[in-house]
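EI: anyone free to look at a 310-residue chain?
SC: sure, send it
EI:
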Amino acid sequence: MRARDQGSQRSAAFGDADLPRLFHWADGAAVTRQRLTVEWVRRQLVLLVAAAAFSALPWRTHIGHVDLLALVSAAAYVGALWFGWQMSRHHHKVNWQLHRSAAELLRSQCWRYAVHGAPFGPDAADPDALFEVRVNEGLHQMRAIGWRDPRPPGTSALERELITPTMRALRGTPFSVRRDVYVRDRVMEQRDWYHRRAQQSRRAAAMWQALAALGTVGALLAAGAKAFRWGDSMDLVGLASAAAAASVAWSELRQYQPLVAAHSLVAQELSAMAVTLEKVVAEPQWADEVAAAEDAISPEHTAWLARHRS
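SC: here you go
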């Protein structure tokens, strides 16, 4: 599950700004929950490493019978426990994924509707009604697993509209226009997004793997030194182990390594699909080709690839 940045340099005729308000509310909620998840886990890991560091220091500072450094270490552990409890209490990660899924569901259905993708092709008897049904069915399934509608109370009927004027306008354009807009502003934009994310994840994975390896080697050397009573005034084993474990935990939270392969493969799929879509010259096969492209873009497809290609 992920937030879509819109860093493409090409001029977009149709994009996120043209989607309904519900998409923007869900997208904003997903970004907020993701930020909170990442920030709280980061604080928890920093506190755990800090607690190990204060415990490892060779100096002791006492006030009466109280060891101040040990007290600071204990306080850091309490802080880490508090952040972990808050994470489980507020369900930030679960809600982040639910809001992201809802936003991507809306984005995909809106694109399908706007460019005559299946099931909203030219043969659809009432595409507007069918669009409302498909979106509401998808959101109902999301509610069944815990998603909460992010629309504030008192939302106006206009803001609740799921079909925007720009979506209707694009749907009413000739086939060649819809095809060009979809290939450029949806498929190629997403291909670029996946390509950028694959590069970012590859660099981040290499860095955190190196830090985990350094922490592990440091713990090994410290343990060896401790076994032979060399420089055992400072307990580096626990500190190095905590740093290595924190590096692994952070990498697992961000799913860097699995997403390198998944994002790279989706980018390749979309490049091939862009070529195929540009060659479509008639409406009949267009609707199914759009549906296939949307399935490839979907977070569920990416998550499946991440699980099976890691």
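EI: The first strand starts at residue 62 and ends at 63.
SC: 👍
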